[in-house]
Design a protein that fits this description.
The protein is of the alpha/beta class. Helices cover 40% and strands 22% of the residues. It starts with 8 loop residues before the first helix and ends with a helix. Strands 3, 4, 5, 6, 7, 8, 9, 10 and 11 form a 9-stranded mixed beta sheet that branches.
Length: 295
């Protein structure tokens, strides 16, 4: 620690940025200075540490072994500083920002936010609907709700609700379905990029496989698939949570009996090592309870 007060913070930021981004130019853009200034700051850090942190090559700066080790710790340290500063700059209002997939927001969450508002009128909820996996960070996105198998790097996760799947369709179409074999004569609605589960998850317990199914409409996301099913365009294999409201209103019905488990769940996702704020705790407790009771 004796050397730390003597180190130039700007020089350390330059070392970290170049090592992480792999380019003087990109580091300069991020730091808001010229590439020459970044180069000078790296020289200053090397002089203070009396260590060569980068090899100078024709392709640019390449971190040495000690440079790689140092930059890894610097990245962690600057991330911790950023979180602390964000917390200190947070507005006094009790607003919680949650990132979710658009289909989960549209088919389940938005319809229930009124319940949370009645329970906690002092907390305002902001929903960031994004198809990408957003990394939560204090002062920006407080937490995320993700669907998948868990195991994502650089986040802390808590399982909320294991998911089952079952085939759904419009009530009029269901009148033509008496047994599993009838599915082979009907359009099958599919999601183009669904890598979480396939029809075999439901068909296997019924002693058959997806090879018996025909073609049908293909859509880019589950929300459109559910809308198409409600419009009578075919049969769709849905996660239980996403179909529950359309089932309750009669827009959709279960095409056949049987809801079978997957290895997919909904998860509450937070930044690692972050002190959970009371407003986040309140939202976490509410959504876990709501999803587990199938509200």
């Amino acid at each position: 620690m004796a050397l730390l007060p003597k180190m130039n913070l700007s020089a350390l930021r330059a070392v970290e940025a170049v090592a992480r981004l792999g380019s003087l130019r990109l580091a300069a853009d991020e730091l808001g200075v010229t590439p020459g200034a970044v180069s000078q700051r790296i020289l200053k850090a090397e002089a203070q540490l009396e260590r060569r942190l980068f090899e100078r090559t024709q392709k640019g700066l390449v971190p040495t072994s000690i440079g790689q080790d140092l930059s890894s710790h610097l990245t962690d340290g600057f991330s911790t500083l950023a979180r602390g500063i964000a917390l200190s700059q947070a507005k006094p209002e009790d607003a919680v920002t949650i990132s979710v997939a658009p289909v989960f927001a549209a088919k389940w969450l938005v319809r229930r936010l009124g319940q949370f508002a009645k329970l906690r009128p002092d907390i305002r909820v902001r929903i960031d609907a994004s198809g990408a996996h957003v990394t939560p960070s204090p002062g920006d996105v407080d937490a995320c709700i993700r669907v998948g198998r868990g195991g994502w790097p650089d986040v802390e996760v808590e399982e909320i609700s294991p998911q089952r799947v079952f085939p759904v369709c419009a009530p009029a179409l269901a009148e033509h379905i008496k047994e599993v074999a009838d599915l082979s004569n009907l359009p099958i609605i599919r999601e183009k990029k669904n890598q979480l589960f396939d029809w075999d998850v439901w068909l296997r317990p019924n002693q058959t496989s997806e090879t018996v199914l025909g073609d049908g409409p293909v859509f880019s996301d589950a929300s459109l698939c559910l809308d198409a099913a409600a419009a009578g365009q075919g049969v769709y294999l849905s996660l239980e949570t996403l179909a529950v409201d359309a089932i309750s209103t009669g827009q959709l019905v279960a095409a056949l009996p049987g809801r079978f488990p997957t290895d997919v769940s909904y998860w509450f996702v937070e930044a690692p090592g972050t002190r959970r704020l009371p407003k986040v705790t309140a939202f976490r407790n509410w959504i876990i309870e709501a999803m587990q009771r199938g509200a």
